Structure formats: C-alpha cells, structure tokens
Amino acid sequence: MLTGCCLLGMIIASATTATPSEQEAEERLARQQAVRDHLEQSYLVGPAAAESFGYTVDWQFPVPSGDVDSVTSHGDRIFVVTGNNDLICLQADNGRRIWTVSVADDLEIVHSITYMPEQELVLVLTNSKLVTLDSNTGMTKAAVLGKAHQELQWIANTPGVLSGDHLIYGARNGQLVWQTWKIGFAWKAYQAAGSLRLPPVRSNNIICTTSSDGVVSAFNADTAGQMWNARLLDGIVAEAAASDHAIYVAGIDQHLRAFDIRSGRTLWRVLTESALVDPPTLIGDRLYQQIPGLGLACFDALPVNKLDGDRKWLCPDNNGTVVARHGDTLVTWDATNKVLSTVSATQGTPIHSRQYANIDEILTTRLQDGKLLAVGDDGRLICLDPMR
User: Fold this and answer.
1) Which end of the chain is less crowded, N or C, counting CB atoms within 10 A of the terminal residue's CB?
2) Residue 279: partners with Cβ closer than 8 Å, 6 or more residues away
3) C-alpha–C-alpha distance, residues 83 and 375, integer Å
4) Distance between CA 107 and CA 332 in Å, rounded?
C-alpha cells in the first residue's frame, strides 16, 4: 500500500518531469538556436543582425591574405586589392572568385580599378603606371594601339575617372591629367591646384576637382579646358558629390556649399558649427552631411530661392556618414566608432544601430537600393542584399 507521502511524491514528480515529446521539442529548439548562434558567429554580419537592418546575407568571401586594401564594385564584378597588391576579381551575384593576379610591387599604391565590360578590359592605376588587364582572365592585355604597361608622365595621386578614351586623374604636383588609355600617353594636363589628393568627380562631360588648399575647379572632360574655379576660406579633406546641376563641397571652413556645376555660381551655402571632414552624400533630391558635434543633417539638394540652404531634419544621435538608402531607410557608417545604423530618410529618426569592432569599411554597390559590402579586419568580405 502506498502512503500519502509516496502518492504526493509521485504527483510532484509527474508535474515537474517533462514528457518525452516535450524533451524532444526542447532539444530541437536548442539545436536550432545553436545553429543560429553558429551562423551569427561565422558571418561578419550574421543573418539575424542583417535582418534587423533590413538586409539578408547574400554571400561571404574570405580574402586569402586576410589583408584588404580596397574594394571596388562595378556591375557584375567586384574587385578586391590586397595589402600586397594582388587583385581579386569576384562575381558580384555569388561572390565566386574569377581570377587573381598581382598588379604592382608592394611599395606601389593602387589608386583605382576601372572595369570596362564592353572592351573586356580592366584598367589598374598605380603611382607610376596604368596597367590594362583582360577582364575574363586577369592576364595583361595591350590596349588597341598601346602597351599593357603604360608609364605615367605625372605621378598619380588620386583614383582615375573614365571619360571616353581618357582616364582622368589628379597628379601629386596638382596637375589634372588626361591619360589616353588606348595609346598609352598623356593627352593633356592642367594645373588645377598645388596638389590633388581627393578623387575627381564626374557629371556627364564635366570633371570637378577639390584640393587640400581649398580650390574647387570644373573642367570640360572632352576639351580639357577649365570652366571655372573657386577658392574657399580653408582647405578641403572630404570628397565632393555631384549631380547634373551642382557640385556639393564640405569644407574645413565649416561651410557646406552647392555650386552650379557649369558656371561655378554659389547656389546655396550653410555655415555649420564645426569643420566638415566627412563627405556629403547625394541621393535623389536630398543631400546628407555629418556635422561634428551636431549630428546627421538632411538638406534639400536644390532649394528654390534659399541661398542659406534648406535643412529638412537633424538627427543628433547619429555620428555616421550615409552610405546607402533602401526604401525609406538610410544606412550610415560611423568609421571612428565603428557603428552601423539606420535612420528614417523622411523624418531623420533613429531606427537601429549596432557596433561592429571587427569591420573596417562599409560601402555600397549603388546608393539607392544597392547591396552593402562590409570588409572585416580579418579579410572577410560580406555582401548584404536589401530585403524586398
């Protein structure tokens, strides 16, 4: 006969012990969570983290050397330059490696990679040379009338901008150089400033330069003639942005300016609270600028009859630079604190943010609804696709 104590013990045991089916369910959930945790750790930005920003993980590529110097996206290709100047060509849709080739000595600086799918060529601009490669194999390939290795007359100091038969770059001595890539010589050069370090920007047939000594210039890309120039109150350390109508320049003199790209007339300017060291980002009819000590600001790119500009909103909680827009969401990257954030494009209100100490750089394949590319300090390159 069972006593009252025994019966009570059996009741308690039956109430606290899970049935076999419940145990299986718990174990299954634990295994699923372990898989999710493993995925989050395996990827530079895990699937769950990517989803919180409105993206999905497309692919991840581990750079063999673990040292990434630069990443360039162009159409269906992504090009990675490593620390020892190997160039890796990847398929943009799946991250598969197409080829790898050494493009320069270790002491050289690779300034830019220009992909020309119609000619099946890749132009590699270094300090002293312009190298032409076959885009299908990575092997050196002579241009139409020139050589595969073209010695530069002026030492390159900026990335190159393609304009027809010319690759236009800024030289160390301040010359803006039109290098004829087909036949391997400099067609023309113009003394734009004391020194050029920032990338030239192109809008249609107009090339604009900005210099560390505060000179902004515009040139006709077809004739190499100067259209106008302007000198600011102080230097410029941030790359400019350009549209069909204007060039936007952030200056150390605390001003954000918009110049008419054809005449150089000041369309509007805003005096901010501090020196501007981050580049402006132009997406559609909005211009975004990080103002140190104030936050991320949004301006109407072409306001009507507002010489002092038209600020739409300010997000004081965001210290990043806009790298992309997906729908109504802006993606920003704070390179100093390594914080990835999203902000409402219409209201300027913060949505989500997270620190990634192991990410060195974030860029996009296209400013509007493009994919994100994140470069890790261990050489991992991950591609994130915006959720539809």
Assistant:
1) N
2) 238, 239, 240, 241, 250, 321
3) 13
4) 33
**pLDDT of 220-253, one tens digit each?**
999 999 999 999 999 999 999 999 999 999 999 9
Please check whether residue 335 lies inside any domain of the structure: yes
- Give kind and range of the element (H or E) at residue 27: helix 20-42
- In degrees rounded to 5, what are phi and psi of residue 98? -95, -45
Tokens of 28: 């299954």
Tokens of 70: 């630069």
Q: How far apart are CA 114 and CA 133, in angstroms?
A: 10
Structural domains in the chain (count): 1
Residue pointed to by tokens 């020139």: 146
Task: For 265-288, write each residue's pLDDT tens digit.
Answer: 999 999 999 999 999 999 999 999
The answer to whether position 125 is within a domain reads no
Two tokens at 339? 């914080």
Residue 100 within a domain: no
Domain residue limits at 369: 30-62+317-388
87: burial class by Cβ within 10 Å (0-12, 13-18, 19+)?
buried
Mean pLDDT of 256-265: 98
Helical (H) or strand (E) element with 295: strand 295-300
Residue 197 forms part of a structural domain: no
Q: Measuring CA to CA, which residue among 263, 200, 178, 254 is closest to residue 227?
A: 263
